[in-house]
Amino acid sequence: MADPLNILHTIGLDELYPVVRCELRLADQLDVDRLKRAVVAVGKIIPEIFASYEVADNRFVPLDRDAATIVKVVTDYDEGAANRLDFMNQPQLKIIVTGEKLIIFVSHILSDGAGTKQLLYLLAECYNRQAVPKGIQNHTDIDGIRQLLATTKPTVNTTDHPSEKLLLPKLADSQSPTYEVIYTQLSEQQTQALHATTRKLGVTLNDMLMAAFGKTIQQYCGVGAIALACPTDMRQYLPAERRQQLRVQNMTARYNFDVVIQPEEGLAVTAKKVHEQMVDRKKAKQFLDSIRGLVAKVEAGQPIDELQKAVEASYHVREIAYTNFGIVDQERLNFAGTTVNQLIMTGSFRRMPMYQVAISTFNSRMTLAVNMIGSRAERQFGRAVLDHMRVRLLAITDDWNK
What we know:
Elements: E1 19-26, H1 32-45, E2 51-54, E3 59-62, E4 71-73, E5 93-98, E6 101-107, H2 113-129, H3 143-150, E7 178-186, H4 188-201, H5 205-221, E8 225-233, H6 240-243, E9 252-260, H7 267-283, H8 289-299, H9 304-314, E10 320-328, E11 340-346, E12 350-351, E13 355-362, E14 365-374, H10 376-400
Helix pairs in contact: 1-2, 4-10, 5-7, 5-10, 8-9
């Protein structure tokens, strides 16, 4: 059996296909033949990219190691290509070259966002060296997490199914849905100012972003609380030696927080409430509760349907979701002969009114992005939501940096 945490991303496949999408905008087009050789090199370290996936026994089934099955060159790219991904029968990696853009789809069954960043760095290294880096091995065990589970008590009074859910309204005009990636950015100066604001307030950047997103969604549904799941990379809790290893795998769990807020209260007040609750969650390592049941059932040899029930109970697909991929290292994501001018990282495409904001920082600029499926009106609405979140962030940085 492969990494048990892969199973986290095998529920709700009809409404949410499990991908991490990366869009690289380059100064010049890559050498496609060189890129294909790099993919083959990556496959020698992470053979699962050349494999299909069998849900029934959580295993990857080797396919031909032909880079042409992964790398495609197209003239006219349509985001609807995401609807044609099939990780159950095809490779776990898809790279589309369209002019000076690379669109990379990584199977979320194979890896989470942090692992996807490691995969991108490895792809760039193989492209630049035109060889397989020596002494590198990919690790997919969760032994360190099992030890953490054994030494950490379950928390109480937290649930993955809040009583008041954040929701967006369903529009009457929902016909002819189209795939689209929408995004907005903060400049380097604006990003620095946001960091400075969080330091002045004594909160983390993540606290601020979640508060801004939650308040933005709250205005459309009128609930009295913000309840969100906050993904966290468990690699940080591994022993130092294991943290240094290549780990293209699923090792993300998530905190659940639920704070009562007044719609009229300021973002600074909300951010501090989120921060206070997140401090308590972190002290208790509450994120482990999101995977505890799954790992226990895996240890007991339970069948896949029982494992998926554990996921539904503690790691279910939320209609409103947040993720932060953090900083992508521009020095490591560097391809010879060109420059990566911009990077947009997102998760799965969601059918409106489902909505996930994905945040990443590259070259000192923060990007807020959403993968949407919706009618023209729904996509316009989705863009307005994202723009409103950005306005909230800029407003508080202006207030605290005058």
